Amino acid sequence: MAKKVEIPALDLKREYDFLRKDIARELRSCFESQQWILGEKVTQFEEKAAKYLGVKHAIGVASGTDALLLSLRALAIKEKNKEYFDKKDEVITTPFTFVATAEAIVRSGATPVFVDVNLATFNICPGEIKKAITKNTVGILPVHLYGNSCRMDEILKIAKENNLFVVEDTAQAFGGTYSTKGACLPARQGSASGGKGKKLGTIGNCGAFSFFPSKNLGGCGDGGLIATNNIRLAELVRILRNHGQIKKYNASYIGYNSRLDSIQAAILLVKLKYVDKFNQLRREIAKKYNEAFKDIKQLQTPKPLTINHQPSTINQQPSTINYGHVYHLYTIKVTSGRDELLKFLNSSGIDTRPYYPILLSKMKAFKNCKIKGDLKNAKDLSKKILSLPIHPFLKDEEIDYVISTVKKFFKK
Ligand SMILES: Cc1ncc(COP(=O)(O)O)c(C=O)c1O
Q1: Which atom of ligand 1 is nearest to the CA of 212?
Q2: Which of 1, 200, 230, 309 is the most buried (most CB within 10 A)?
Q3: What residues line ligand 1, using a CB cutoff of 6 Å?
Q4: How far, in Å, is the centroid of ligand 1 from the Cα of 409?
Q5: Per-residue pLDDT tens digits for 182-216
Q6: Which of 63, 70, 91, 98 to mutate for ligand 1's pocket (most ligand atoms within 8 Å of CB)?
Q7: CA pair distance 301, 65, nearest whole angstrom
Q8: How remote is the CA of residue 231 from the centroid of ligand 1, in Å?
Q9: Are 349 and 9 in contact (CB under 8 A)?
Q10: What's residue 120's pLDDT?
């Protein structure tokens, strides 16, 4: 009997085979030093990550969720002079994301306000953000979903006009860039030179990154990072990650035990060297999928932002060339038959998943959050999206098998 084809959504074993020697060397030096919490490896990684991202400060924390939470807590202290936001303080975000985005807003004391996304990019729509602003709005939390940039120039313009902070959820987009004509951001917003050609997560006041193992830059456990150009924000995050202590054994704020482990930093030091190469491999796979699926009328392939065309209303379509997308996930919209295609691919050995099937605005945990508008596109997407396998070690024959199986389904 022929062996059943199994194509996982992600294959970390192949990546480990490729990095085995480098990882062993880094881990050995970690064990030799016996420094486990913060320490030299973490400092080295923070310096290298700051250089890679082009920011003044990169601060390692225990997870991407903590990176969001500590960013928000630090902004409450810095901008509002209070330890936590109040419930009446509103942070505008997308309902079409992972739980952690809105969870962090609630844990910082504020209330998430969910607005709709663009139907082509799947990302928060600046036009909808504008409509949701009230006298209680304190900030905007855009998510660069699947590795595709939000429309940052418009978002920064809205933030500037309304004196709001911007925290970028860059959990899925390490290495991605925003390469459009950027609006200028005043120094207090964190970046003096605007959004042009910048790494995602370095455009707003700060960016929150996740090193969850499946991410484009993933550790061997949990980890996260906050990137910022603002020295006060960086200082507050460093204090909050270490129990709110400015001086040892004397807490100034209610903080967290949220430090990046030396072991994670050692692994990340190895993987950072390859992140551009791995992201490029993801783009090449995406290109093959795009080309193969372009004539299937029931499929909409990912639509990255482009230099020339950026949608600011929920129904505009951008064109398809952009080198800034890092394809953390390759997510298609299936206009009819999504669930049947999902079953067909899974039964053919292809690990395919819907990210995300339930909007945050529909979850019990977020029942006290606010919703602005009808979230029409987000609702539609949650029923129609599907993520196909994509990772740097996917073999040509596996890509071909995914393509031929998808085509077979639509020919039935
Ligand atoms: C969009 C988004 N935000 C935040 C997070 C939280 O990151 P972590 O799992 O490292 O806490 C994730 C990770 O899954 C994510 O995908």
Answers
A1: 10
A2: 200
A3: 63-65, 97-98, 100-101, 143, 169, 171-172, 210, 212, 222, 224
A4: 32
A5: 332 332 333 333 344 789 999 999 999 999 999 99
A6: 98
A7: 29
A8: 25
A9: no
A10: 84
* Phi-psi map region of 296: left, alpha, beta (phi>0 left; psi -120 to 50 alpha): beta
Q: Give φ, ψ of 389 to 5 degrees.
A: -55, 130
* 193 contacts 156 by C-beta, under 8 angstroms: no
Query: Rounded to the nearest whole angstrom, what is the distance from the C-alpha of residue 98 to the centroid of ligand 1?
Result: 6
Any alpha helices (H) in 34-174, and if so which ranges?
39-53, 64-80, 100-107, 126-132, 152-162
Q: Which residues lie closer than 8 Å to 135 by C-beta, 6 or more apart?
A: none
Which domains does the chain carry? Answer: 1-412 (3.40.640.10)
Of 93, 206, 212, which is best to mutate to test ligand 1, by the most ligand atoms within 8 angstroms of its C-beta?
212
The CA 410 to ligand 1 mean position distance, Å, reads 33
What percent of the chain shows pLDDT beyond 70? 90
The Å distance, Cα 102 to ligand 1 centre, comes to 11
For tokens 């969850």, name the residue: 212
Question: What is this structure's pTM?
Answer: 0.93
**β-strand pairing of 245-247 with 370-371:** unpaired
Residue 212 CA, ligand 1 centroid: distance in Å = 7
pLDDT of residue 317: 52
Find out whether the peptide bond into 356 is cis, omega within 30 degrees of 0. yes
- For residue 159, the one-letter residue type is A
For the chain, which ranges sit under pLDDT 70? 1-3, 179-196, 305-323, 412
In whole angstroms, what is the distance from residue 245 CA to residue 137 CA? Answer: 29
pLDDT at 192: 35
Residue 141 token pair: 């939390």
Among the listed residues 52, 58, 132, the one whose alpha carbon sits nearest the alpha carbon of residue 95: 132
